[in-house]
Request: fold
Amino acid sequence: MDSVQSPDWPVAPQGALAANSATGRYGGPPPTPPPVGRATPPPPRPAPPPYQPPTGRHSAAGTAPRSAPPIPVKILIAGGFGVGKTTTVASISEIDPLTTEAEMTIAGIGVDDPGQRSEKTTTTVAMDFGCVTIDRSLKLYLFGTPGQARFGFMWDDLARGALGALVVVDSGRLDDCYPAIDFFERAGLPFVVGVNAFDGQLVHDLGAIRWALAIGEHVPLVQFDARDRLSVRDALLVVLDRALDRATRDKRG
Reply:
C-alpha cells in the first residue's frame, strides 16, 4: 500500500528527530511553555498565635458555662394524724412524691382518729418526701413526718439537718398538734403554724387558735389549703422567711 505524505512537511532522513521539531514543521522558534506553579516562592506566613482556652459566656463547644446547682434546703411538714401533711407534700412536689401509706385496719379504731370530717383510709407509717425548685439557686426538699405518737422516735432523725418546719393544724382538732409544737420548741427549730382550711372554713379564727396553742407573736400563724399548690407555696415561703430571719440573727450574734 502506497504511503501518503503531506506536502507541507519537509522530508527528513530516516530516524532524524529534527524533522519532527517545531522549527522543522513550522519554520519558527518553539513556543514558550506556560508557567507551571508559581513563578516565585510565596512570602513566609507569620506564625499562628499560641492557643488560649476559651473565655467568656460560651465554651469551645459553643454552650453556656454550667451554673452552680441550687442550694438544697430541708423542710419538715409535721403535725397530728390526718391533718393533711401527705396532701401538702403531694400538692407542691414537682416529682411524684414518695409516700409510705398503709391501709388503716380495725386495730386502729380508738387509737388513730382522723376526725369526723375525714374520709381517710390510709396512714403514713414512715415519711413522705417531695421536692420543689424555688429558683435557680434554691431547692426545697420536703419531709413529711408520721402523725401518730407511736412513730415519734423517727422525728429526731427526720429533723436532722432541717432549716425549718411547717406544723399543719386542723382547727377542729387542736389537741393533735401540741406534740409537734412542743417538739420544735424544744429543738429550737424555726417553725410556722399552718392552719389547714378543710372545706375552705375554720372552726376557730386565727386569734383564738394562737391563744389555744399558746404560741408567741414571733411564731407565724397562717391559713392555707393543703390541696392548693399556690396556697402551699405561700405557706412554705413563710417558713423560708422565718428560717432566713433566724440565720441572720444567729450570724449577727
About this structure: The chain has one domain: 71-252. The mean pLDDT is 76. Residues 218 and 242 are 9 Å apart (CA to CA).
